[in-house]
Amino acid sequence: MKTIIYAFIGTLAILLSGCGPKDVKTIIAETKEASFIIYTYDEYGTPKGSGSGFFINADGVGITNYHVLDGAVKAQLTLSDSTELEIDKVLASDAKWDIIKFSVKNPDNKKFKFLKFSNKLVEQGDKVYNISAPMGLEQTVSDGLVSSLREDSHGQVVQITAPISPGSSGSAILNENGDVIAVATFLHKGGQNLNFGVAINDSKLAALSQNEFEKKNASFNKKENFIILNIPDDRNGTVVLHALEFKNDATVAYLSFTNLDLSLNKHVIWCELNKKDDGFLIEDKERNRKYYVTSSTIGVDKPNGTEVALASNYKFKVFFPAIRDELHTIDVTYGHTSRGWQFTNINLDRYREKLTYQSNEYIRNYAYSTMHKGDLNDASSIFLSMLEENPEDLFALNAMGIISYAVENINDANYYFSKAIEFHPNNTLGYLNRSQLYKYQKDYKNAIADMTTAININPAQPDSYFVRGTMYADTDQWDDAVNDYSKAIESDDFQKDPYAYFYRAIAHVRTKNVKAARDDVQTSYNLTNDPELEEALQELWKALY
Predict the structure, then answer these.
(1) Quick one: CATH architecture of 226-356?
(2) Burial zone of 411 (CB within 10 Å; 0-12 exposed, 13-18 middle, 19+ buried)
């Protein structure tokens, strides 16, 4: 009898131990395998933002928030083992509930780890966990309690003390058994521990039959010939080729320009037509065939160009003839000088085969896309996070310098440009922008010193000579100004630039070289179609006689 009793007690202990809470490390390990980060792209192919999600069955059906995918054209998810998968179809959705159910492209019929929903009643005070990617920080674990159960516009909502941040949206909120009780949805920034998830279970999800997302986002994953690239130009990365779309009636390049140049508060971009090899073109490297620009959504010349304010991002399209051949290796270029936009040796097969996430490029391009004149908070937060991860990130340091200057924080701007120089002494970017900062502060000695260093690092860049020439002119060093303007004009970049001849003409006047000044005025006048410059040239011409 005692043996039977002891056996019964042992069996009971085993059963009871299985009913208790799981070990936290076990919950974390199981949830990590079933969870993922979602990276989305907008209609330009530009990084739109990230969220979180989790699988609910072994075939790869996943759950996230509606708002994570809303407005996206394509989306990709990355698992904890770095496996990358593209979202295929949205199966069901509810904008009010903020829930979306989807499948992934799974040609290998891989089986996935997944999470189960809890059928236990959620109560105030219950222990909860969340594993997500706030601010892109993968596999971040937080814990807390159910602080309240509420009803709002989303329906049944679970208020928790476990922290939720941007990027956590769509992740699972788990009970102490590791089962899903809610999907993390939003937080109130004005208070502490005001974090919320929409309640979810098997029966609620089974009742989800509508698909609002498909009606509102009809283009999601329907663009088979829409290839996402996100390639920075070869020169300095301020122009990005986000995507190419091969349509029946045209080929479209989707690009953006971010003004991170302190030498101009407003930068003008334009796309000239009928310029053949000197204009925008796509070159098929295999067939040695070129396709020239037919139109664009920016100005057609400099006087009528599109202005982009300092610390701002501008998206635009460039159109080419329809290309029937399947391209493999291409160049996309605009001019062949150092000031041109060059995207060379693009292997389209690589991008066509798989939507690939590159961490630094995605985050940087997303940060650029958030840069709007007068609203730089989001960009600033992202770049600062990048610098926490890598204090030597050149582009983040430069961007923070520009943002600091734009909000009139000159000391911080100097700090970031100086750090860029400290960490990258052989890169011209920090010197070029800090020199302009010194110039605006009327510290011409240091401004000229930085420009001279930039020229010594890269003596083939004609823009640097032109900029230093204006600094020499500002300090009445006219012989030096003439020399720098002349070096700039010797290059292809400035040979047909009417403003370069105009500024050199003024410098010639100051050095009393009247004949050279007249020649430059005449050349400038012949090159320009800018009424304001023509008027200035006429006044200068009169003064020379």
Answers:
(1) Sandwich (2.60)
(2) exposed
Which residue type is seen at 360?
N
Task: For 269-286, write each residue's pLDDT tens digit.
Answer: 999 999 999 899 999 999
The angle subtended at Cα 204 by Cα 200 and Cα 207, nearest 5°, is: 150
**From CA 69, how far away is CA 52, in angstroms rounded?**
11
Cβ neighbourhood burial of 358 (10 Å; 0-12, 13-18, 19+): exposed
> Could you tell me if 100 and 68 are in contact, meaning their C-beta atoms sit under 8 angstroms apart?
yes
Distance (Å) of CA 485 to CA 178, 247, 461, 482, 501: 70, 45, 13, 5, 8
- Provide CATH code, domain 361-543: 1.25.40.10
Q: Which two tokens stand for residue 316?
A: 């635009």
Task: Break the chain into its structural domains and give their ranges.
Answer: 21-222, 226-356, 361-543
Q: What confidence score (pLDDT) does residue 12 get?
A: 38
Q: Residue 278 has what DSSP assignment?
A: G
Q: What is the DSSP string of 389-435?
A: H-TT-HHHHHHHHHHHHHTT-HHHHHHHHHHHHHH-TT-HHHHHHHH
Q: Distance between CA atoms of 292 and 322, rounded to whole angstroms? A: 11
The residue written with tokens 């410059």 in the block is 533
Q: Which CATH architecture has domain 21-222?
A: Beta Barrel (2.40)
* Rounded distance between C-alpha atoms, residue 156 and residue 158, angstroms: 7
**Does residue 319 sit in helix, strand or coil?**
strand
- Integer Cα distance of 329 and 351 in angstroms: 11
Average pLDDT across the chain, whole number: 89
Residue 2 scores a pLDDT above 60: no
